[in-house]
Design goal:
The chain is of the alpha/beta class. Helices cover 28% and strands 29% of the residues. It starts with a helix and ends with a strand. The model is unreliable at 1-26 (pLDDT under 50). One of its GO terms (biological process) is nucleotide catabolic process.
Amino acid sequence: MKFTKTSFSAIVFIAVVCLFLSPTISLAKIYHLTILHTNTHSGHFLKFDEYPVHDIRGMAARSTLVNIVRAEVEEAGGHVLLLSAGDVNIGTPESDLLYAEPDFKLMNMLGYDAMAIGNFDLHHPPEVLMQQQEWAGFPFLSANVVKKEAGEILVDPYIVKEYDGLHVAIFGLTVEQADFTSKHGGMFESRSVIETAKKLVPQLRQKADIVIALTHIGHIIESGGSYRTPGDIQLAEEVTEIDVIVGGETNTIFTGLKAIGNTLLVNPGMYGRYVGRLDLTIDSERRKKLATIPIHSFRST
C-alpha cells in the first residue's frame, strides 16, 4: 500500500486526536499550591506588644499579608490554602469575654479553609464550640476527639478540597491530654494520635493526591507541657504517608525546610506574630511533591 504525504498527515492527526480522547490515557498536570498557616492565636486579634518586639499589629496586619500573597500566587496560576493549627481561644480578656467571636469572624473574612481543634478550643462547653464554628464559616477538624458518653466524633475528622483536579486532604489531630488541660474535659475523650493517623491516612491516600495533617500536638514529646503526648516528629516517623504536617501547640518557628523522610514539617510560632508559607509543586500523575520552596515566615506587623 502506497502512502502519500496527505494520507500520512491525516493518520498523524487522527492519532493525536485519539490520544486526547482516550479514557485510558491521562496527561500529567503540574499544580502549584501555597499553604499559609498560623498557630495558637490565643485571642490576639488586636495589636499587642511582646518584649522585645513592640506594636505587633494582630489580625489587621495578617489580613494585609495574606491578601498580598494570595493575589501574587493566584496571578501566577497557583492556589492558596489558609490553615490554623488551633487554640484560637483563651489568651486575652477582650477575646475571652466574647468567646472569641471577633477572632473567628475576622478569620472568616481572611478566608481560612480549616482549623485543627486545640486543647484551649475545648475550654468552653460544646455548644460554644459549635457557635464559634458558625461564626468562623470554615470547618473545625479533629480525627481523635470524641464525645465521651456517646463515643461520637466531636467535629469533622477531615476535609478534601479540590483545585482544578488536584485533591488535597486535610485532617486534624488534637493533643492526647486535651481532656486533662481543658475546663470541660470530662465531656470528651482525646484518643491516640498515632493510632488514629495510622487508620485514617491510608483511606485519605485513596481520595487525595496530597495528605496534610493539621495538628495541635506539639513538636516533640512533652513539648505541649508536663504531660506526655506524641508530637509532630513522632507522627512523621510512624505515619510515613503524610505529605505535610502543619503544626501547632508549641512556639516553634521554622525558617527553613524541615523534613522527616518524605514528610515536610512547618510551624510559624504563636500568637500570629508570623504567617508561615510553604510553596509546593505537585505532579498529578506521580501523586507526589516534585519540589518545594523552603518555608518563609512573614511577620504580621
